[in-house]
Amino acid sequence: MSKIASVQDLEDHAKANLDKNALNYYSSGSQDMITLQDNVNAFDRYQIRPRVLRNVSNVDTKVSAFGLTFDYPIFIAASAMQKMAHPDGELASVRSANKHNVCYSLSTISTSSIEEVSEAAGQVTDNKKIWFQLYIYNDKHKTIDLIKRAERAGFKAIILTADTPYIGRRLPDIRDPFMIPSHLKLKNIQTEKIGEAETSTQSSENASWLARYFKENINPGLTWDDVTWIKSVTSLPVLVKGVLTAEDAKLCLQYGADGIIVSNHGGRQLDTAPATIDALPEVVRAVNGKIPVFLDGGVRRGTDAFKALALGATAVFMGRPNLWGLFYDGENGVDLMLDIVFEEFKLAMALSGCASVKDINESYIQDSRHIFSKL
Length: 375
Ligand SMILES: Cc1cc2nc3c(=O)[nH]c(=O)nc-3n(C[C@H](O)[C@H](O)[C@H](O)COP(=O)(O)O)c2cc1C
Known about the structure:
By secondary structure, this protein is an alpha/beta fold. The protein has helices at residues 7-17, 20-27, 34-42, 89-99, 114-120, 140-152, 171-175, 192-199, 209-217, 225-233, 246-254, 276-287, 302-310, 320-352, 368-374; strands spanning 46-48, 63-65, 68-70, 74-76, 104-106, 130-134, 157-161, 238-243, 259-262, 293-296, 315-318, 365-367. The protein has one domain (7-374): TIM Barrel (Alpha-Beta Barrel), CATH 3.20.20. Helix 5 links the parallel strand 5 and strand 6 (130-134). Residues 191-204 have low confidence and may be disordered. The structure holds flavin mononucleotide. Residues 25-26, 39, 77-80, 107, 109, 133, 161, 241, 263, 265-266, 268, 296-299, 318-320 line the site of flavin mononucleotide. Pfam families: FMN_dh. FMN binds at residues 78-80, 107, 133, 161, 241, 296-300, 319-320. It comes from Smittium megazygosporum.
């Protein structure tokens, strides 16, 4: 096999080799997957406007947020059930992120526990760049317990996912209902006893286990007051994930969110929602620098991250590339994936004439649709 040179190569490898149950779950989007594809394609509608003769002998890729410094503005997004990709699952991913000094965000519905992930992130609490993604359960005590466990384990932020009152309609999952493999458990929420009750839905009717799990456990009645509520039960910064409009960005400010992740859940929730790179500018404008804005969805190359930063993101997250790297070779595979994207990002900075991330701004980007409309 040829050497892996890009995230696309890792994705091709996974698509050719991963078992159907896991591949359908990881790769699918909702309905006709228009948003899923547009997340990726939209980056190509923007071009980088490079500047020359700017001394790029040293390129500094570091960024800061919430008092933490990261070596690159490219983080790992929360994605569920990573042990389907590799037996080390989330532990391999967090070890790799930790080694590269970037943020790893852990899903509520992970196959490694909060405590295991914290331990894998190393011994030194200050060095743990781990953020916890939260789904709010119908049972408020369960939700508070998750937050408290994350705090005790040294997680540095809570990411409240706001776009998933119900699971999106994912057609591959309807055609061939997804099953969590019987040897795996949702480690954060299953005690042995609850585990039996919650996994008992596995073998019943012919419908997605995950969609049923959400219907039975996750609260679809959330409102902006729940942001206030989460803020009242934790001292950690709270980010709202799943914002795509200026209106909601302003509500984030009004209700005291500490950060925003512009996201459409990797095209897995509302199909035909805008690509995240297209939604980013209106959110950035509405926030006007008051809190950091992050983006995920479709980031596959260093140039994609550069474009998001030029449009005002503090950093980006990648979801599926982490899973493809993990499947390729566990921790080494995630290392390979991050090394590729980081090298691409650093080179994009150098070839654009940016010696520091602080130099990247709107003057480095053009939207091809606006150029054509002026002709
Ligand atoms: C297999 C998979 C599982 C995911 N699980 C979660 C999750 O548990 N919680 C969450 O907030 N987002 C989840 N996401 C969404 C990601 O956090 C992120 O928004 C998305 O993957 C970004 O798009 P990308 O895959 O194109 O990078 C998941 C995404 C995928 C692909």
